[in-house]
Amino acid sequence: MNGVTPDPSDPIRNSDALSRLKLAQALDRAIYAIAWERAWPNLARLLTVVGLFLVVSWAGLWLALPFIARAIGLVVFAGIAIAVLFPLIRFRWPSREEALSRLDRGSGIRHRPATTLTDTLSSQDPVAQALWQAQRERTLASLKRIRAGLPHPRLALHDPWALRALVMVMLVATFFAAGDERAMRLGAAFDWNGVLAPANVRVDAWVTPPLYTGKPPVILSAANKEAAAVPAAGPLAVPAGSTLIVRSSGGSLDVVVSGGLKEAAPAEAAPKGTNEKHFTITADGTAHVRAPSGQPQWAFAATPDRAPTIALAKDPERQARGGLQLSYKIEDDYGVTGADAQIALRPADAKDGSKDSKDSDGKAAARPLFQPPQFPLVLPNARTRNGVGQTVKDLSEDPYAGADVTLTLTAKDEAGNEARSEPFNMRLPERLFTNSLARALIEQRRILALDANRNSDVYTALDALMIAPELFTPDAGCYLGLRSLASQLEAARTDDALRNVVASMWAFATTIEDDGVAGSVNAALRSAQDALKAALDRGASEDELRVLTQKLREAMAGKVRDLARRAEQNPLGARQPFPAEVQLILDKAVELRQKTQHATPEQLAELAQQQDVLREQLQAYRKSANSRANKAGDDKTNQFTRDRKCGS
Questions:
Q1: What is the pLDDT of residues 38-72, one digit of tens each?
Q2: In terms of domains, do 297 and 314 share one?
Q3: Does 536 fall in a domain?
Q4: CA dist 254 to 68, 273, 278, 374, 546, Å?
Q5: Nearest in space to 436 (alpha carbons), one of 344, 490, 513
Q6: Coil, strand or helix at 288
Q7: Which residues on neighbouring strands pair with residue 317, listed in sequence order?
Q8: Same domain? 179 vs 63
Q9: Which of 189, 308, 549, 639 has a CA 20 to 30 Å removed from the CA of 377?
């Protein structure tokens, strides 16, 4: 026999080729097992150092250390890692003989079975060959017991204190403790920007809340970084929409943000010699100035702007002239900047045409000619946080006056949040017409304005009003006016033409009601009262108030003269609205006097004198009206003639 070791990969030429293949595979496994046992202790030391570095990073130690300490710490860890890897320089790959020796020990059989299978016979003696063949057969029979075995690196000998297990436990704990900040905390170890930064670099940071909040800026410079970095203090609460401004007096500026912080373009250029960055805080998030170093991490909790609330303080009230008075309560965290009243027809008056183009009766859906009225509400203050407001709106001329509507109040704040009140069902106030013909025209006007498809019904109604003019409308002007309205409606083919018909019907009805002259008098009085009230509300000068007071006195005198003229034409005091209207004028004068708390004594004296004159005229009128009513007697013929004039 000789000691030449054959290559198991040689071509298979005899019956033990399969055994040789299995032996070659076991030999490879033995080589890898020996290599692992030699390398793993050193690799385990390296992984322990890396795990300890991650534990220190995720625990946030680098954030608390200055940049110089970070650099020193990183160098120390790098040195330890190199020292641990140094023994790998002596690492050598296992030889074939070492692998065979491992297989011999792993088989548990004497006389080195694995090595025996690799030996060859050089003698040609038949007896020797027979003995050699018998010995190989016995060895091949025991081949299944040859094993390389699992690697045994024996780490306990290299780490008797089991520090690797302690590092593993701390690694798992700090992994969950760091949360979403793992990458940021790990990167802080390599943040050496401050090492090369000038010594006199200054970093200033502050948060500017939106102007409408009325809150002052919050300083976040290095002077209060200790308070910002204390975890127990929690995130800094700021209004949503605030702006974080970070300014550096020199060097590079590197700010890392997360969460709801988004970089925004600055509105103005930064001062000369400084770097500046702006960030909008829309939700909770953090900001960290990585360069220049030495700045803490700031956490922010964005407080959202709550939507305002608005509700009716009491039910809407009708004013004497058909105006609508609304009282409402408004609340908001930073103040309401605008409020509106929105009116819509109730389902009883406007069927929903969005589901079907025709209703259940087969008729076309309502087609209003005008949009429902919407008007702004008066706020108690420019930015009302909590208060009760009041608005008076004259909707008596609106086509929707007298209709059943749903009232909804809306309020908006500076952030764009909008709130709506609970819908309130009501009948919109309208002007009261005493003339029967005027009332009929106003009713048909409302029908046409709310549904243009009913123009034929309105035309039929106008045509019916012109039946027997010698009995019901003997006045030629009234009859011709009705005929003109009917012709205009018959010729109307577009919505704009129908809107003109609606306007004409209102003008004709008010002309009949006011008898032509009283309308201009009422308009002049209303204009003078509104002008004086507006001047008092805005704090006008004394000269302007004196002029407006004189105009109001002249307008009230004209109203009294007009009422007296109408009283002379009809002596029946019970039918005249003169006492009620004069009383209303007196009430308005008292109201104006109460509102002129800052008026001059001369203005108050003029108002008081005006009230006295009106009271005397009212008493004189009542005496005159009573006497005229007694003299009138039972003149039914004259009364009937007056009643049927223009449909009265």
A1: 777 777 778 888 888 888 888 888 777 776 777 78
A2: no
A3: no
A4: 18, 16, 12, 52, 67
A5: 513
A6: strand
A7: 325
A8: yes
A9: 549
Domain span including residue 286: 202-303
Phi-psi region of 515 (alpha: psi -120 to 50; beta: other; left: phi over 0): left
Token digits of residue 530: 């509104």
Candidates 200, 227, 385, 193; CA nearest to 298 is 227
pLDDT digits (tens, 9 = 90+) for 174-187: 888 888 778 877 87
Answer whether residue 138 is part of any domain.
Answer: yes
Asked if residue 540 is part of any domain, the answer here is: no
- In whole angstroms, what is the distance from residue 477 CA to residue 483 CA? 10
Task: Tell me the pairing of strands 275-291 and 242-248.
Answer: antiparallel
Q: What is the DSSP string of 383-416?
A: TEEEEEEEEEEE-TTSTTTTSEEEEEEEEEETT-
Q: Is 25 among the domain residues?
A: yes
Helix axis angle for 17-58 and 163-178, nearest 10°, is 60
Residues 273 and 373 in one domain: no
Residues 394 and 461 in one domain: no
Instruction: Look up residue 466 and give its amino acid.
Output: M
Residue 312 pairs in a beta bridge with 328
The total number of structural domains in the chain stands at: 5
**Vertex 500, ends 456 and 352: CA angle to 5°?**
55
Residues 121 and 208 in one domain: no
Pair 342, 315: CB distance under 8 Å = no
Half-sphere exposure (Cβ direction) of 65: Cα atoms closer than 13 Å: 21
Grouping H, G, I as helix, E, B as strand and the rest as coil, residue 70 is helix
